[in-house]
Write a structure and sequence with these properties.
The chain is of the alpha+beta class. Helix content is 34%, strand content 34%. The protein is built from 1 helix and 5 strands; from the N terminus they run H-E-E-E-E-E. Strands 1, 2, 3, 4 and 5 form a 5-stranded antiparallel β-sheet that branches. A hairpin with a 6-residue loop joins strand 4 and strand 5.
Length: 122
């Protein structure tokens, strides 16, 4: 009886462990997707990056079998001044924020991962 109870307890912990593993995987993938967009835009010249919404929030894959189906991404840029306050005019500095949205594998809640960086005019 004791062995059966111990075995049942151990077996119930496996789904929880798998969900924690999946959550770590999703968080890592979200950071990779945000960073890859940052790098893509950083490769452009300052003059080609315009302030505003570069990429509206959208699903990264329409194929439900694709691992990217559960992720959405949004990219925005703004002119900022030396204090990082949003500016209406070109100050030679652009702030870019990439946000990746996904569903938490453990609690089934919406989560997001955002990365911001600055692009300076050369």
């Amino acid at each position: 009886m004791i062995v059966a109870l111990a075995f049942t307890g151990i077996m119930r912990s496996f789904p929880f462990g798998l969900a924690i593993n999946r959550e770590a995987e999703n968080s890592t993938l979200a950071s990779f997707l945000a960073q890859s967009k940052i790098e893509e835009i950083h490769s452009l010249s300052y003059e080609t990056v315009t302030p505003g919404v570069i990429e509206e929030k959208h699903r990264l894959s329409e194929n439900q079998n694709d691992y990217l189906y559960g992720f959405q991404r949004e990219t925005e840029t703004w002119f900022v001044d030396g204090n990082l306050a949003v500016s209406a005019t070109d100050t030679g500095l652009i702030k870019m924020t990439v946000t990746v949205y996904y569903t938490d594998a453990l609690f089934k809640t919406d989560k997001s991962y955002a990365v911001s960086t600055l692009i300076a005019q050369r």
